[in-house]
Amino acid sequence: MPVWITATILAAFFQNLRFLLQRHLKVTTLSTMGATWARFAFSMPLVVVALGLWLWISGQSLPAVTPAFWTYACIGAMGQMLATACVVTLFGRRNFAVGVTLAKTDVVLSAGLGLIVLGEAVSVPVMVAIFVGFAGVMLLSDPPKGEVALTIWARLFNPASGYGLLSGLLFGLSAVCYRGATLNLTGGDELLRAAVALLVATVVQTATLGLWLAWREAGQIGRVLASWRVSGLMGLTSMLGSLAWFTAFALQTAAYVKALGQIELVFTFLVSALWLKERSSSKEIAGAVLLVVSVLIIFLGALA
Q: Which sequence ranges form a coiled-coil region, renumbered to this chain (predicted)?
């Protein structure tokens, strides 16, 4: 099995665990931005340790950095940070499974952004998958009971769908930029380049959002630090998942990595049904199935 496939499956698994822990923090003790910052603040020291260990074990030196690397890494970091905030906000509007599934529109958007930003074209099957995935989003965008929406326009542009689609756009942008960042490091193996790019992104995210919290949400940083038991575990799953994502981006185009990464939906619905005891409607399940079909089309196209 290609390394990028293994890395992507691991990334999806750890990301699902991280979303679950982040949801817990959001609905119990922290604000949206506090729960978002906790992920970066607690994962950053672990990234430093992981990078140092790999440099020592592999005997490599740090890769050379190009000017384009900093641009890609910083834009990707900001996009991922804002996308994460959108997902955390969305958890308060729809159940766990639907919240994560709406964010998975990034697979569709990554294909277009990859072509525009990096010139990485997609095949005809990917275009077919875009329409299949859009149909799934339409089904998932129905608001919950109590929120009346009679038209297609209203179903698509309700607040829950807005947060989900915006998070998908921002996650897609960050994925393409992270691939661009790893491609603009010279020297070292894929894991080393992934770790360096991840460290830079995490430092930018921790510093930027930390300053925002200190300015706009007094006391929130203290609450984050007080939640170290859950936040520390979330930081570990975040570091493992992000390192796997970055490794996959170093090996394969963002569109294909994100396509396969939607295997996370399987993990998400299992957690939603078996652990959180949440119930999904028939339309939500049908929408998720269409998104999974979209994943399979793109995945098979990648192997062709």
A: none
* pLDDT confidence of residue 148: 47
The tokens describing 80, both together, are 């991922």
Cβ-based burial of 71 (10 A; exposed 0-12, middle 13-18, buried ≥19): middle
What per-residue confidence (pLDDT) applies to 49? Answer: 96
What would the two tokens of residue 127 be?
Answer: 């275009």
What tens digit of pLDDT does each residue of 28-83 get? 889 989 998 999 999 999 999 999 999 999 999 999 999 999 999 999 999 999 98
Distance CA 286, CA 268 (A): 15
